[in-house]
Amino acid sequence: MAKRKKNAARLGAHIVFIDESGFMLIPTVRKTWAPKGVTPIHHHRYRHTKISVISALTVSPRRKRLGLYFRFHFENIKAKDVASFLSHLMRHIRGNLIVIWDNAQIHKGQPIRRLCGRHKRLHLEALPPYAPELNPDEGVFAYAKRALANGQPHDEWDLLKSLLQVFSFLRRSTSHLRGFIKHSDLPPFLS
Predict the structure, then answer these.
(1) What global pTM score does this model have?
(2) How far is CA 31 from the centre of its chain?
């Protein structure tokens, strides 16, 4: 394993930060404005339907180009979904990939081990426990939750449409992606 990592570093590898999060139909309530003396009322249906999202913030080895990849799921994300997402990334990104993520149970399943056995250019690295501030992909989800705060999606398709707008905007905004990396507690590496 150490030999594979040295080869990946020598050849230049894409750094891929991966994380997952869920977005519920019950809106996230944030501070809002209302006329003086009038308490704002936020009407919504009390449903626990959610959309799970897996995303990857990528940094290319030479030009430090940034990318954002994502997938939406109407159920909880499982190890097979993570393996499918990693396969998707490998189809779209050439060269070695160093995936940096947390120690979630879905990152350790049999589908992940099989995928790593088949693809020598895939290298997995776990962040230290309880250190979300080291994963810039957390910034992607924080931004999305702020953007959707106080919203009132009628159903999961309405929520999906809003999520797609936010993630598509972030995919095109390299300044936001760069900001997520710079505001993480990682040592600077984008200069």
Answers:
(1) 0.84
(2) 25
Q: Which amino acid is at 64?
A: K
Q: Which fold has domain 2-26+46-182?
A: Nucleotidyltransferase; domain 5 (3.30.420)
Task: Return the closest-CA partner of residue 99 out of 123, 68, 130, 74.
Answer: 123
Per-residue tens of pLDDT for the chain, all 191 residues: 455 545 444 458 999 999 999 998 776 666 666 678 777 665 656 566 889 999 999 999 888 899 999 999 999 999 999 999 999 999 999 999 999 999 999 999 899 999 999 999 999 999 998 888 999 999 999 999 999 987 778 888 999 999 999 999 999 999 999 999 999 988 877 65
Measured in Å, how far apart are the chain's first and last C-alpha atoms? 29
CB 68 within 8 A of CB 175: no
Q: Cα separations (Å) of 112 from 13, 17, 86, 109, 123?
A: 19, 16, 9, 6, 11
